[in-house]
Design a protein that fits this description.
The protein has four helices and two strands. It is α+β, with helices and mostly antiparallel strands. A two-stranded antiparallel sheet has the order 1-2. It is elongated.
Length: 102
């Protein structure tokens, strides 16, 4: 149990205009810092465009939607399952043909 605690960090991230404390795996620190930076940059862009015309809550939802959209699009672009299935099918067919010719 003590070993598990050593792999965890308690850090503070500056996100937009707030400090947020999180406990994370030591190996994930860079990703959390990059995520906080991304959120801050996107929020600043949306706040510049919509401040005074939309609530802070709506601006935050726009940021969430923007990041979630990017994530979903990248997830679909990186989905290799269809290719894996085609390769498995082709491999099986090739093995059947080569097996019959022996």
């Amino acid at each position: 149990m003590a070993e598990q605690k050593q792999d965890r960090l308690n850090i503070k991230l500056h996100i937009y205009d707030e400090e947020v404390g999180v406990v994370i795996d030591r190996d994930d620190e860079e990703y959390f810092r990059l995520a906080a930076k991304l959120i801050t940059e996107r929020y600043n862009a949306y706040a510049k465009a919509f401040k005074g015309r939309q609530t802070d809550h709506t601006i935050a939802l726009r940021v969430l939607l923007d990041i979630a959209f990017t994530y979903e699009k990248e997830l679909k672009n990186n989905d290799t399952l269809p290719y894996d299935n085609v390769l498995a099918k082709l491999t099986k067919e090739m093995e059947e043909v080569l097996g019959d010719s022996k």
